[in-house]
Specification:
Elements (H helix, E strand, L loop, with lengths): L1 H17 L11 H4 L12 H41 L6 H22 L3
Amino acid sequence: MLYTMSIALVLLTVIGAANPAPAQQVHLPPAVSQGQGMGAPPLKSGDDIQKQQAIAANLQRQAEIRRDTEKMFQLSSELKEYLDKTGQGVMSVDAIKKAEQIEKLAHGVKSKMKQLF
């Protein structure tokens, strides 16, 4: 009898180990557990988000190019007026600084124009 009970216990242990434990229920936040038709906002795919980010970055880049170009135009006009007034071969420190600013802005605009989005 003890032998039969020990065999039965071993069989129950083997059968219990062979059956996987019942799956645990995953608790999701309300926004995720509701389906599309349940009033949840539609989820956007990664491609749509990347496209929107690329468009926004491109618009920002264009605005920066426009702003820098306007600043270059302003500085160039001021530098031209200064050179027309003085007519000398020697430039002031202020005029040299304006020329350097124009150069930096020109390099920045050039590099921004080469960027691809």
